[in-house]
């Protein structure tokens, strides 16, 4: 993998309260190794661990989960496996740190495990090995380094998910054999060490050739596309589904702690929930059809349904403007549940808003995104789950913000439904 400035991203962990524990902030930092995203917990020798919190540790495949453009935007990326896993888990597991070291091998990653564990996360998702294979490191040494990471986590009181090495198009036959040896060892032996193995190489490997499945790896031959990351995230979510405590993290309408007006999408104004605005992606009139649809689960209320007809390439933006309840310096996060039908056409390969949640600050150029797309390969329509919860990273409201715009953008064709949305203050740290 290409060697670039490595970024550590620690989101922090809030005290438990309404909805559980939540990330606090993400602050831009300078280059690795000595600088990065920090929190007060880093370096703590004895910290409480939260059973629904997750920290990611690995190389640039891990780094793809979170992108920070200093003083412009922060985003959970669609090339990140955790972005997709969290959507499928309906955000029941809270991401508290992303420690991705581009170009680094597992011995270096092992040396950074203590920093990742200092976030207080109850779960560590460990990824790595591709750069080792490129550098000629043996399967035995890769396994030893991974065990060193797992041991540190277990001694610190965290549980571990060990992930397999994904296929790369540039490998020699010898490198592929070493990767297969590591993967088979993880699949067969990780359980014996109290670690959960996640075989996410399987859904993106061609069963006939052993090569990466077409469309799952970027043109660089190394990193997963959004479609590949979605398949990896699905495998990870399936694994965690049985061990992350169940529950519904979303509230209901009329909650005064929710800054989003009409968060339950009530009312009907020509098919649109009261107070909400529907435009095309260029903020013009849209031909998309809006309607209210009764919920079919055990909750009262309705879905806001938007249907974009086949052939309509203008995209849509459904949004609400918030003018009160916040101040400069407040830390906020957003979530929104959705459903979709199986009529989605392929999402376009250009543009950065195929399907994403956005909170934008009017008056200054600052935003946060959930499921943001920036890579050259757009996710396939089938990659998007039939239902889930989108979420953004924390947003610290900057000085000069006059209003916040909460909304979803969809650049594709098909039927989309939005339900309960939330824009909340992060909880104070404990």
Automatic annotation (TrEMBL):
Any matching Pfam family: Lipase_GDSL_2
The SGNH hydrolase-type esterase domain, residue ranges: 56-230
Family annotation (InterPro entries): Ester_Hydrolysis_Enzymes, SGNH_hydro, SGNH_hydro_sf, TAT_signal
Residue ranges of coiled coil: none
Classification via PROSITE patterns: TAT (PS51318)
PANTHER family, sorted: FIBRONECTIN TYPE-III DOMAIN-CONTAINING PROTEIN, THIOESTERASE 1/PROTEASE 1/LYSOPHOSPHOLIPASE L1
Protein name: SGNH hydrolase-type esterase domain-containing protein
Native species: Motilibacter deserti
Taxonomic lineage: Bacteria, Bacillati, Actinomycetota, Actinomycetes, Motilibacterales
């Amino acid at each position: 993998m290409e060697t670039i400035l490595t970024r550590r991203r620690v989101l922090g962990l809030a005290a438990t309260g309404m909805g559980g524990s939540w990330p606090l902030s993400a602050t831009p930092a300078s280059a690795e190794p000595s600088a990065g995203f920090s929190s007060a917990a880093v370096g703590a020798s004895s910290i409480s661990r939260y059973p629904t919190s997750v920290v990611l540790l690995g190389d640039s495949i891990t780094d793809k989960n979170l992108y920070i453009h200093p003083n412009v935007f922060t985003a959970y990326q669609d090339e990140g496996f955790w972005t997709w896993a969290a959507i499928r888990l309906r955000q029941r597991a809270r991401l508290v740190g992303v420690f991705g070291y581009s170009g680094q091998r597992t011995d270096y990653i092992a040396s950074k495990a203590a920093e990742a564990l200092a976030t207080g996360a109850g779960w560590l998702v460990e990824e790595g090995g591709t750069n080792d294979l490129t550098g000629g490191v043996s399967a035995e040494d890769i396994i030893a380094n991974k065990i060193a990471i797992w041991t540190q986590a277990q001694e610190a009181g965290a549980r571990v998910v060990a992930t397999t090495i994904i296929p790369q198009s540039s490998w020699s036959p010898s490198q592929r054999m070493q990767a297969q040896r590591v993967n088979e060892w993880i699949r067969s032996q990780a359980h014996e060490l109290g670690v959960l193995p996640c075989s996410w190489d399987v859904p993106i490997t061609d069963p006939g050739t052993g090569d990466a499945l077409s469309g799952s790896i970027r043109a660089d031959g190394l990193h997963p596309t959004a479609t590949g990351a979605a398949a990896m995230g699905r495998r990870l979510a399936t694994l965690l589904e049985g061990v992350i405590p169940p529950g519904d993290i979303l509230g209901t309408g009329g909650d005064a702690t929710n800054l989003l007006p009409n968060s339950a999408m009530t009312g009907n104004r020509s098919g649109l929930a009261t107070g909400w605005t529907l435009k095309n992606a260029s903020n013009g009139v849209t031909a998309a059809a809006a309607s209210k649809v009764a919920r079919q689960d055990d909750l009262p209320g309705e879905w806001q349904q938007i249907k974009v007809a086949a052939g309509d390439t203008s995209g849509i933006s459904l949004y609400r403007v918030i003018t009160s309840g916040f101040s400069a310096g407040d830390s906020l996060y957003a979530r929104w549940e959705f459903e979709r039908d199986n009529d989605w056409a392929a999402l376009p390969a250009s543009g950065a808003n195929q399907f994403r949640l956005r909170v934008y600050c009017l008056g200054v150029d600052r935003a946060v995104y959930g499921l943001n797309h920036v890579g050259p390969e757009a996710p396939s329509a089938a990659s998007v789950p039939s239902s889930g919860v989108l979420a953004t990273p924390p947003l610290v409201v900057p000085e000069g913000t006059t209003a916040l715009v909460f909304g979803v953008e969809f650049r594709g064709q098909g039927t989309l439904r939005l339900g309960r949305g939330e824009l909340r203050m992060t909880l104070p740290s404990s």
